[in-house]
Amino acid sequence: MVSVPVSASKPTPLAKGLPTSLDFPGKSADEVTIAQVKKALAASNPKFVPARQGIALKGEKKLLSDGATLSSVGWKEGGELAVKDLGAQISWTTVFVIEYIGPLIVHPLMYHFPKLFYGQDVQHSSLQKYVYAMVMAHFLKREYESLFVHRYSHGTMPFAYVFRNSFHYHVLGGVALAYSVYSPTYSATSAYIRGTIRENPQFLLACAAVWLWAELSNLKTHLILRDLRPAGTTTRAIPFGYGFGTMTCPNYFFEIVGWLVVCGMTGSYSAWFFLLAGTYMMGVWAIKKHKNYKKEFGKDYPKRYKMIPFVF
To answer: Which residue windows are transmembrane per the record (predicted)?
Structure first.
């Protein structure tokens, strides 16, 4: 039998029953998982639920993975675990739906009701029509993927993070980008558009073709990642196939290409800032994912760039 002492990492009204000791009859430290510890803790402390509990070794800050066993995380007989209340939780699916809904509301408002924002009507140029269609299609695709494609290793995240995560899309990709590209500066009568390549039908079609390739390629990589993880599991495997032959995160690369097209079409400072901010964050995530793949699969993981072929 395994007996695991558990205390609270800091005082909280939800942990009045702590410290305590959880018993797992007939099991060894090689069999008991962190998820089972959370379940047992919730059973003895009704105010706790597994989704909002973080478990760490006593004296350490790193939270332990639900699928890890006690022995695999270094717990030994007599060792103590600490539980942290992570606060109110929200599902990852809901988080992404909220994030992407912002641009889907802001862009139509500024495009269809320009007088409310610019004090005048705007005769939309072909460029503005293309960009509007591309932005709307992109975020509708994102919503579709959030609901029907993505499978997450963690079921929930702290609710407070929603506001932080939404800033990039609601403010940078929503308000700032929409206000810039639907303004009179880009209208059909603007000197910035008339007589330039930005009203050339061949140029616009070529840009749209590259953008469409990037969007479909991004979707393809997401489907490959989805098929690696059976529904209801946290299974991890090495991805192969379209884009993954050279990159750990080809989905990020195709995302960058799609927005790079919008930047090239418009020359908008807001579009460039949105792309640069997004590229920076995707770079941080790509480094982390690349490192985790190499750590988990060792020599079995192929040599790949992180997210940009021959560059990074």
So the answer is: 161-182, 240-262, 268-287
Structure tokens at 180: 């810039």
Q: What is the dihedral of CA 178, 184, 186, 187, to 10 degrees?
A: 120
CA 146 to chain centre: 10
Residue, of 63 and 149, whose pLDDT is higher? 149
Q: Kindly report, residue by residue over 275-309, the tens digit of the pLDDT.
A: 999 999 999 999 999 999 999 999 999 999 999 99
Gap between the Cα atoms of 223 and 149, Å rounded? 7
* Closest alpha carbon to 106 in 180, 34, 21: 180
Q: What residue spans in the chain does CATH classification 3.10.20.90 cover?
A: 2-87
Structure tokens that stand for 11 in this block: 């005082």
pLDDT tens for 86-128 read 878 888 899 999 999 999 999 999 999 999 999 999 999 999 9
- Are 35 and 69 in contact by the 8 Å Cβ rule? The answer is no
Report helix angle 250-266 to 201-228, nearest 10.
160
263-to-174, 190, 213, 274 alpha-carbon distances in Å? 15, 18, 16, 9
The answer to whether residues 226 and 149 touch, using CB atoms and an 8 Å cutoff, is yes
Whether residue 14 is predicted with pLDDT greater than 70 in this model: the reply is no
Q: Give the type of residue at 280.
A: Y
Q: What is the DSSP string of 219-267?
A: HHHHHHHHHHS-TT--------STTTTTBS-HHHHHHHHHHHHHHHHH-
HSE toward the beta carbon, residue 309, CA cutoff 13 A: 8
The span from the first CA to the last CA of the chain, in angstroms, equals: 49
CATH architecture of 2-87: Roll (3.10)
* Alpha carbons 251 and 186: distance in angstroms, whole number: 30
| Angstrom distance (rounded) from CA 262 to CA 138 | 11
Structure tokens at 64: 């332990």
Nearest partner of 215 among 273, 144, 126, 290, judged by Cα: 144
Name the band, by pLDDT with cuts 50, 70 and 90, for residue 148: very high
